[in-house]
Amino acid sequence: MSPSQEPVFPEYETDTSQTSKLLRKFKETPFVPIGMAGFAVVVGYGLYRLKHRGEMKMSLHLIHMRVAAQGFVVGAITCGVLYSMFREHLMKPKEERKTD
């Protein structure tokens, strides 16, 4: 990009390091990384429990693990949406609510 051109998305191009981009995204949507981490924990625990499943069939154990992991992710996304709605609509100053 030449110096005379303006960036298309200047707010995204000012953050050059991956760490600063990740921290900014985590502040904007904190429940997405929490959902991803929870998914990884549930899958890891399910794989650990795989050898101690007893008489349970492998397919049934994998189905239970998948349902638990998906449930955690859906719950985290739902909490994130509710948090965003709360932050945008209830935490606004009263002056901004009157003009909307």
Automatic annotation (TrEMBL):
Gene3D superfamilies (UniProt xref): 6.10.140.1320
InterPro entries according to UniProt: Hypoxia_induced_domain, RCF1
Source species, domain of life: Eukaryota
Record keywords: Membrane, Transmembrane, Transmembrane helix
Pfam families: HIG_1_N
One Gene Ontology cellular component annotation held by this UniProt entry: mitochondrial membrane
GO biological process, one term: negative regulation of apoptotic process
Localization in the cell: Mitochondrion membrane
Alphabetized PROSITE patterns for the sequence: HIG1
Chain ranges passing through the membrane: 30-48, 68-86
Principal localisation: mitochondrion
Segments forming domain HIG1: 3-95
Name of the protein in question: HIG1 domain family member 1A, mitochondrial
Organism: Patagioenas fasciata monilis
